[in-house]
UniProtKB/TrEMBL annotation:
It comes from the Bacteria. InterPro entries: YjbR (IPR007351), YjbR-like_sf (IPR038056), YjbR/MT2646/Rv2570-like (IPR058532). Keywords: DNA-binding. The lineage of its organism: Bacteria, Bacillati, Actinomycetota, Actinomycetes, Kitasatosporales. PANTHER family: CYTOPLASMIC PROTEIN, CYTOPLASMIC PROTEIN-RELATED. GO terms for molecular function: DNA binding. This is MmcQ/YjbR family DNA-binding protein.
Length: 125
């Protein structure tokens, strides 16, 4: 099971990823960003540990139908965001893939110059 330290490590393991705590009224909320845009949102010190991740809308619906640990994004656009409970039965590999998919969706929306600077595998030179 992925714990808070592992979640932070996975999120920060991507090129250009940063962690910020931008909400003064909620300092426990960590956002993980690339190019100034959020790809993961979590409260690392809160149990149960969850992470909100950007997701393709069609895939989001399939994941929610197949996995009780995946629900519409909490306080987010429910069409594009899922909140994933990390205390359930989702395999660690699947959680890592969901985080990577979220990162990739955000990077894909960045200007080409930023994508090139990130050395993103999805960008052809």
């Amino acid at each position: 099971m992925i714990d808070a330290n592992a979640l932070r490590a996975v999120c920060l393991g991507f090129n250009g990823a940063t962690e910020e705590n931008p909400f003064p009224r909620h300092p426990e909320v960590s956002t993980f960003k690339v190019g100034g845009k959020i790809f993961a949102l979590t409260s690392l010190d809160v149990a149960p540990l969850t992470v909100s991740l950007k997701c393709d809308p069609e895939l989001a619906l399939r994941l929610r139908a197949a996995h009780p640990e995946v629900v519409p994004g909490y306080h987010l656009n429910k069409r594009h965001w899922n909140t994933v409970s990390l205390t359930g039965d989702l395999p660690d590999r699947m959680v890592r893939e969901l985080i990577e998919d979220s990162y990739d969706l955000v990077v894909a929306s960045l200007p080409r110059a930023q994508r090139l600077l990130l050395d993103w595998p999805g960008e052809r030179r």
